[in-house]
Task: inverse folding
């Protein structure tokens, strides 16, 4: 029997260059490897038709999906277009240097209606330092994108080596002039195994990161954006529906190298071995979700949202009275100004989102 799940994630591991901070499954673009990967990916996508109804959201991430050659990009998009419900959200990640008329025509042809562009920063020196050695006019680029798609997200990273408050101010000033409807701002995380980690690069001081974060929040609100999730801001009605699936702790399907999914109470991660994957060998890691782990994931995901969660929904899922079970902890957190209970919802305040890890630890 087919299962109804809202969201599908597709992983494309190829990149034109490897960013020193990235810890996702990726490898340098190679035509032979790309053809083999897409061939296996299409087989996996074909198998979904018998397992699931069409999806409300589809998200192609990476890696860099936009660096696929046009033939392979078309094959993937054509297959995915048949898996999307009418009116669904269809997102592709792209790097600025890949976005040309051919790319835009192709994604438009197959129904992509949302694009997430990894700009990271507009500062050329920092772009060069993270191996983004392109030079382009971002205003002309966004103007061209708007001719095809009006739902545009720009991804930023603050705290990269050489970054400063002045660069952040310049990035925000440019962003607002571009007049797009969504932005994501992430503080640099230095993960084990990355080039930054191996080079001894450190994350920025916590107080500086907090200062940057609060400045971003203030400026975004001033310009009509709502922070609907810790790191994500949108104009009204332009929230990323796909990512809301994750943050509401709902089930989703993941296809492709090292992609993750959550189906029928099981969280899984596909193989990270590229050779195995293209040969149809997928040693999947699985985590069976227990009552305890479900509750932990529920807090970890939902409390990232500015609106938190509906208390009555929590009570139905976990068969307990949230306000009674956590009465003393909630009282302490309200006193500390970290959380609020209002209109039947439990959510973090601005102060609480700054110390979100501590709030979640108190609950789990």
Result:
């Amino acid at each position: 029997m087919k299962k109804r799940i809202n969201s599908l994630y597709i992983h494309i591991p190829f990149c034109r260059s490897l960013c020193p901070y990235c810890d996702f499954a990726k490898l340098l673009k190679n035509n032979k490897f790309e053809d083999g990967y897409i061939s296996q990916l299409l087989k996996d996508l074909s198998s979904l038709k018998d397992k699931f109804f069409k999806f409300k959201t589809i998200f192609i991430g990476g890696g860099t999906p936009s660096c696929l050659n046009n033939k392979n990009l078309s094959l993937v998009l054509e297959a995915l277009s048949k898996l999307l419900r009418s009116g669904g959200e269809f997102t592709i990640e792209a790097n600025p240097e890949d976005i040309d008329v051919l790319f835009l025509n192709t994604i438009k042809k197959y129904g992509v209606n949302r694009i997430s562009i990894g700009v990271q920063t507009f500062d050329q020196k920092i772009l060069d330092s993270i191996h983004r050695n392109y030079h382009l006019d971002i205003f002309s680029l966004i103007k061209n994108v708007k001719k095809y798609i009006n739902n545009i997200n720009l991804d930023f990273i603050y705290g990269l080596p050489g970054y400063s408050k002045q660069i952040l101010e310049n990035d925000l000033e440019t962003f607002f002039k571009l007049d797009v409807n969504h932005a994501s701002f992430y503080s640099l995380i230095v993960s084990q195994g990355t080039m930054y980690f191996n080079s001894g690069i450190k994350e920025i001081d916590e107080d500086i990161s907090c200062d940057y974060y609060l400045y971003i929040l203030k400026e975004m609100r001033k310009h009509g954006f709502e922070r609907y999730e810790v790191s994500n801001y949108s104009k009204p009605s332009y929230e990323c529906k796909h990512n809301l699936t994750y943050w509401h702790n709902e089930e989703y399907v993941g296809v492709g190298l090292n992609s993750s999914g959550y189906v029928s109470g099981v969280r899984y991660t596909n193989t990270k071995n590229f050779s195995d994957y293209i040969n149809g060998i997928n040693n999947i890691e699985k985590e069976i979700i227990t009552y305890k782990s479900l509750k932990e994931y529920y807090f970890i995901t939902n409390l990232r949202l500015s609106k938190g969660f509906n208390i009555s929904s929590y009570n139905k899922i976990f068969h307990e009275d949230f306000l009674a079970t956590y009465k003393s902890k909630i009282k302490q957190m309200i006193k500390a100004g970290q959380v609020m209970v209002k209109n039947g919802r439990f959510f973090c305040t601005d102060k609480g989102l700054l110390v979100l890890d501590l709030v979640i630890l108190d609950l789990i």
Q: What stands out?
A: The chain has a mean pLDDT of 96. The radius of gyration is 21 Å.
